[in-house]
């Protein structure tokens, strides 16, 4: 019998993934606390943010263990090691570089590479991907999700990222998406914790309306 991983449990609890691009370490704990309170259980800090490893470390130390903390925009195997050293548990990539995929699995981290085609999706799964980031979702309507899931192994977690709104979330979910990556629609640098809370509530309301 398949035993759920911590990542699977987190996504089952709430399939919304917070992408905190541009987060500064000084704001990391406050933003993380608000997102956790509103129900988020997966949070990533893209590595093209200011001092991202400091923010990852702060989030991991301040949030409960049932919240998965990771890094986005991971481009090299060396960065994988830095994420692990900071306490990160999840590697999210915009692409599907086998060297980075293998480094993430060798480090014992969860892996979510970016895919846009069936070829990339199958390659990522062969390298041990735990979920697939469908990116950029603006260019791929729900019909693409449905078509990919028709040929991918049963149970594949396909997560659209890019342009996901509270309004279009339901259509992707109906096509089989298991989660959603939320970027600038949820967090932008300079937006205070209460502003993030307000946006988070809109997304969580839309997620719960799916009956998940």
UniProtKB/TrEMBL annotation:
Cited Gene3D superfamilies = Aldolase class I
Query: Could you tell me which Pfam families the record lists for this protein?
Result: Aldolase
Q: Check the record and name the InterPro entries matching this protein.
A: Aldlse_KDPG_KHG (IPR000887), Aldolase_TIM (IPR013785)
The cross-references to CDD domains, in alphabetical order and at most eight, read:
KDPG_aldolase
SUPFAM superfamilies with a match to the protein in the record: Aldolase
Which pathway is this protein assigned to? Carbohydrate acid metabolism
Which keywords accompany this UniProt record?
Carbohydrate metabolism, Lyase
Subunit details for this protein? Homotrimer.
**What does the sequence similarity comment in the record state about its family?**
Belongs to the KHG/KDPG aldolase family.
Output this protein's name.
2-dehydro-3-deoxy-6-phosphogalactonate aldolase
Originating species = Pseudomonas typographi
